[in-house]
Amino acid sequence: MGADWTSIPWVSAIVAPIDYLAFLVRVVVGSWDPRRTWARFIAQLSVHGAGAIPVVIITSVFIGLTTAVQTTYQLMGVVPKYFVGMGVGRLVLIELAPVLTGFIVAGRSASAIAAELGAMRVSEQIDALEVMGVDPYRYLCLPRVLATCIGLPVLVVVTEVVAIFTALIIAEMMLDVPASVFTYGVTHFFMLRDFTGGIVKSVLFGLLIGTSGCYYGFNVHGGAEAVGRAATRAVVLSAVLILLVDFVIALVFFKT
Amino acid sequence: MIRVEEVSKRFRDYTVLDRVSFEIPDGKTTVILGPSGVGKTVLLKIMAGLLAPDAGRVYHDGNRIHFGRFADPRAETGGLGYVFQGGALFDSLTVAENVALVLEETTRLSRAEVRSRVSEALRRVGMAEHAELYPRALSGGMTRLVAIARALVAEPRCVFYDEPTTGLDPAIRERVSTMIRELREQRTRLQVVVTHDLDAARLLADSTYMLRAGKLVRADNVRKEDYEQAYA
Q1: CATH number at residue B7
Q2: How many domains, chain B?
Q3: Which of A234, B18, B33, B77 would staple B214 via disulfide (CB 3.0–4.6 Å)?
């Protein structure tokens, strides 16, 4: 009979990332079955994608307002006014929209997925799937992970459009930057790489958010308290991994 | 046939199973008896491939069961029926959808065939008129009946029952016992029942084991006094 080595902190610190990666591979590669996944994927996309649109729009408005004010504060009097449009556009496309939308979806979806699957684990519903011969990774995890992977880039585009449009309005109305000048700054300095880099990031963020939620939900042991702990950990792990991947993508896409 | 070899399991310092070995033949109903907390459910879950033992092996028809994330229990067990003590019904699905799920996900039956088999399974447990209810609207006894329908609808070769009659009113308890007995009489399925109820064990079992201090001992004709004495 072996001891539970994973209860030793330094062993756990080594084992946990490997276990998470194995889980990710199991979900994405080991349970691929589009025919049986499609309907549940659409249902999850509605929850984790469409369901997040209102909060994403509200957040985007404030991202646009704040970014316009801050950029104007930094640049006004130093460079021509159209640099405000450039600054807002590139900042939103490259960094703010993917990362902040990622945080919102992490807070909303990673916790919800972890809590839902955790409750299913506690009430033996996941065990029931396993004994029936229904792969729980395919039935439960794959649709959720795909939904966050596909849903997040769409939400990021929504954020980008709403934030830049809101920035344009406040720039015109309060910051003494005419709309035509602001638009010139956004469009003239637009680079496709900025946009694609942000979208690639958001797909990866979606993958991490979905798998973090599923991973902690699947690994719940105990009762209601453990479910709450899993939800918290899923959000924390998602947020940390978002920042980590953001740095790696910055190196790959944007290092000069 | 299910063969359990030298299976051990402990939780922290508490040894639940200590090198347990036994065999369950096809077509027979085996009862594992013991009071709450002795490890009956742990043993049942290990036999079903749901819980990895610390040591030992489990075989279904000679196939060794593997545990872990990349294992494929269905390929090794051939698919099981398992009646969980709490039912473990999917709360986002109706009663009919709960019963249909295993057929939809593991077979290529047409929708009409699935509907027909689900109706038949629910009729057998007396729950046909509740097919469109969600689990939250069911009593504990009704939940257990739906769980039995779900476990049997795919006609699995092995059916495991975790305390199938515990906490039920007399009428439903009798109905559940009768169903397990009828399946026993058919001799086509291997059934394993874990229970703390000696009367239920006598009623249902072809063979009986008692789990005590991590060891499994044969107890086919155990008397009530001996059973109570064993755990005193």
Answers
A1: 3.40.50.300
A2: 1
A3: B18
